[in-house]
Amino acid sequence: MADSSPASFLTQANALLRKNLVFQKRNIWSNIRLITIPFFLCLLLLVVQMLFNTQFNDVHGQCGCKEKTCDLRYSTSEQAAFCAIPNPPQWTPMLQIPAPQYRVATTYPSHSSPATFLFTGNNQSLGKILMGNMYSDLSEFDGELANYVLGSSSFPAYTNYMDSAFISDIPIYNIQNECSPNSSFSILIHQSPIAFPKKVNCVQGLNLWRNSFSNVNNELFKGYRKGNPDEKINEFAAAFDFQNTNGNNLNVCVWYNSTYKNDTVVRPMALIRVPRLVNQASNAYLEFLKGSETKILFEYVKEMPKPETKLSLDIASLIGPLFFTWVILLLFPVILTTLVYEKQQRLRIMMKMQGLGDAPHWIVSYTYFLLISILYMLCFAIFGSVIGLNFFRLNDYSIQLVFFLICINLQISVAFLAAAMFSDVKTATVIAYIYVFGTGLLGIFLFQFFLEDPLFPRGWIIAMELYPGFSLYRGLYELSQSAFSGDYRGIDGMRWRDFENGMKEVTCIMLIEWLLLLVLAYYIDQITYSGKHPLFFLLKSSSKKKQHHFCQSQTSKVVIEMEKSDVCQEREKVEHHLLESTGDCAVLCNNLKKVYSGKDGNPQKLAVRGLSLALPQGECFGMLGPNGAGKTSFINMMTGIIKPSSGTAFVQGLDILTDMDRIYTTIGVCPQHDLLWEKLSGREHLLFYGRLKNLKGSVLTQAVEESLRSVNLFHGGIGDKQVGKYSGGMKRRLSVAISLIGSPKVVYMDEPSTGLDPASRKSLWDVVKRAKRKGAIILTTHSMEEAEILCDRIGIFVDGSLQCIGNPKELKSRYGGSYVLTMTTSEEHEKEVEQLVHNISMNAKKIYRTAGTQKFELPKQEVKIGEVFQAVEKAKTMFPVVAWGLADTTLEDVFIKVAQTS
Questions:
Q1: Are 347 and 419 in contact (CB under 8 A)?
Q2: What SMART domains does the record point to (predicted)?
């Protein structure tokens, strides 16, 4: 026996997950094509890397070769860096001196600005002595560069095989206490296999005392070049803190300039400028203790011997951010179109009307998309590692896992939020792919340019990263740069110790955005799909008892003098049920109204005008009316698709305004248009909706079999075919079966027999007759025969209001008190026919005429059937009668009469 209780959260989640997995199975080839895209792009990157290695690295990225000999003599300038250097040259140690335009100018001309050194300590007089001993007083070159304090404003290179201070056009400075007019001299730089002259200019070393460590630090910071490189900033060559230095102890702290803020390349080789500063301080202290003859000569610095190397540039990592952005974002159109498809086809509404709660839908749908995304990203990352892409191999896998996991979660949240903005799959698809490819192109040609520009404000970078596509691109850029640097230097890529760079910033932004957008998407969903008030989280739901009193007070004020007596009796019956609160009505509508606001200057549309209806269990109520009478609007209000403008209704004692989620577990709906998944079979539809109705195991299987048999979809394997292959009538029968599975207490059927052949219609009627024994049915139809056979009571709607109500016999008796006489003759005898009819009844009314055929209404109280027969037999002797007939009033006649007179 079926469980009559509502399906639990786990049951609903299980039903939805099973349906999604079956749907995904139907799209297996689409999924395979989707997964091949990252494989294809990864292979494309690998091919690009291989072409670069063979066409560039093998020609320009190795030491030149001639006659099987590889060294500097057989190399171009591009190839020289890759040759073996067994005996690196010896270079004189240098200081890092600011360029003239950045030095402390004070009262000096710009061309002779001194190189300023700050100093502090516990003993100012000793500090002055030591700073005075820092520089050489030699004004002429004596052949030994180690005796001079030399410096340059050139930046040191990554290696020291070729010192930039000696091989560049930037001058070398000799730092002295005082510069004489002829203190410059020339030297010959001789480093095999080259020799070249170099001029050495004198620059004064200016020593400035500061009272404390903090004063020195602050002044150094203020003098640091920031922003515009042409801005006049006072830079200092170095600073010394002699601390507690005395005649028995040397304790010195050295400040040095390691890089400039506008320099985009980190220069660890700047440390090569530091040893000379330490040597200066040591020699100054020795001179203080032992005199000027005692020195520690610092003759040269020298790089380690170097074997022959080969250039290995990871081009795949350099262009990877663009391709990887595309790969990850390609999931976005898939998720978005799935959500919009359910919205466009109104499948989400259909699932909700059949009992699927918001929580199971959100959790299962989100988890479902998350699992697909994780599988997609795992295939992507594993394949990239297998084929040897450094982006995946060198960077820490745990960092990649965290970053990609946050990325796909943010992407799913954006898709859920974007789905609320679209109602058409084609439009959503186009916009989604513009987002995918536009983000990648803007990232590489715009955003990356700003990232690498040191003058671009950091605040604007963060603002741009608030756009999810750019935050994704930034993270991929950081990982790519780490992989590129790691491959170039022969070290690992990004590790957690490196997470303090832009990667941490962008990960935090994406994490916060994920949570905020997910909450926002859920909020919009509750307003749109569930029809809740925009401030629903602040409002408290009213109790059912309170709502009953509200309805009672409202109905007591309703006075409609123009209503028919049967309609007034129905309204009084509703008021009685509200007062008694008996709960024996399956459906109770109380003054239900729906007004659609006017658009484009049109007036408001009154779709339903104060409908009151009491429907007991076991009754089938038929709603008849012309198109646009308000029948579908009424069903939409009863099923929660739209909200009533005023009034309310109760289903099984539950208010549609406050308890719609509970009502969904007790009703079944056959909508006017078939809401089905094209990829699922009829059986799979019934299994899904059966589980939502809490059917399980053998009970579920039996219910599905019976449903398929009842609507003639069982034989020939029709029930196992995909719905996309069904005819219109087969889809309609399946919709009816869905509405009835699980034996709901109340069933709404909106024109269920539309498009059915006579045999299928007859079979469908038998199904509805059996179903109404278990609950109440509200049925709309344009078939008078269907209404007369199925409905216990009928209500005729015209222009949104109920014009009459009763069983078919009552309506025909009340509105059809006449016979219909039809007679066909030649046209020249039409006047004689009219005269014959008026002889039968003076109040006869002609209602139809065409080509000799005429119809007349004869009041029953004035006419006897025998008299009609006698009159017709007499007429046949007077003129030829082709055909004639006398009929009682049909329901169709009642419908036409009510519709025309209302």
A1: no
A2: AAA (SM00382)
68-86: pLDDT as tens digits: 566 656 566 666 677 788 8
Burial class (CB in 10 A: 0-12, 13-18, 19+), 2: middle
Percent residues over pLDDT 70 in the chain: 87
**Residue 55 DSSP code:** I
Query: Is the separation of the CB atoms in 777 and 621 below 8 Å?
Result: yes
Question: CB of 646 within 8 A of CB of 606?
Answer: no
State how far the Cα of 254 lies from the Cα of 248, in Å rounded to an integer.
20
* Residues paired with residue 750 on neighbouring β-strands, in sequence order: 780
User: What is the Cα–Cα distance from 830 to 164, expressed in whole angstroms?
Assistant: 120
CA distance 586 to 659: 15
- Kindly list the distances between the CA atom of residue 811 and the CA atoms of 406, 567, 616, 671, 889, in Å, as whole numbers in the listed order: 66, 12, 20, 27, 10
Q: Find tokens 């299994």 and name the residue.
A: 687
pLDDT at 562 over 70: no
DSSP assigned state of 387: T
Is 390 within 8 Å of 483 (Cβ atoms)? yes
SS3 662: helix
> Which three-class secondary structure state does DSSP give residue 301?
strand
**Tens-digit pLDDT profile for residues 222-246:** 766 554 445 556 788 899 999 999 9
Alpha carbon 410 to its chain's center? 7
Residues 6+ apart with CB under 8 A from 189: 166, 195, 196, 197, 198
Residues 465-507 have pLDDT tens digits of: 999 999 999 999 988 888 888 776 667 778 888 777 788 889 9
Under 8 Å between Cβ of 312 and 385: no
Angle, helices 758-771/697-710, rounded to nearest 10 degrees: 140
d(CA 323, CA 472): 12
CA distance 693 to 708: 17
Q: Which strands form 818-824's sheet, in the order they lie side by side?
A: 845-850, 853-859, 818-824, 883-888
Whether the predicted pLDDT of 104 surpasses 70: no
d(CA 58, CA 54): 5
Beta-bridge partners for 520: none
Q: Is the dihedral of CA 768, 773, 774, 778 positive or negative?
A: positive
| Residue 256 φ then ψ, to 5° | -140, 160
Q: Please state whether the peptide bond connecting residue 197 to the residue before it is cis, i.e. omega within 30 degrees of 0.
A: no
Within 8 A by CB and 6+ apart from 66, the residues are 74
Tell me the β-bridge partners of 818.
859
> In this structure, are residues 211 and 200 in contact, taking their beta carbons and an 8 Å threshold?
no
Supply 33's token pair.
């094509």
Calculate ∠ Cα 880-885-886, nearest 5°.
Answer: 135
- Produce one character per residue of 464-493: b if its CB has 16 or more CB atoms within 10 Å, e if not: bbebbbbbbbbbbbbbbbbbbbbbeeeebb
Residue indicated by tokens 């209001």: 801
Map out the domains of the chain with their CATH numbers. Answer: 27-45+314-528 (no CATH), 90-302 (no CATH), 556-810 (3.40.50.300), 816-901 (3.30.70.1150)
Q: Which residues pair with 91 in a beta bridge?
A: 301
Measured at the alpha carbon of residue 54, what is the angle toward residues 53 and 60, in degrees to the nearest 5? 75
Closest CA to 116 of 233, 283, 198: 233
Burial class (CB in 10 A: 0-12, 13-18, 19+), 716: exposed
Closest CA to 57 of 42, 26, 78: 78
- d(CA 597, CA 599) in angstroms, rounded, equals 7
Backbone angles phi, psi at 187, to 5 degrees: -130, 160
- Closest of 289, 246, 209, 250 to residue 126, by C-alpha: 246
Q: Which residues, including other chains, have CB under 8 Å from residue 166's CB and lie 6 or more apart?
A: 91, 172, 189, 191, 198
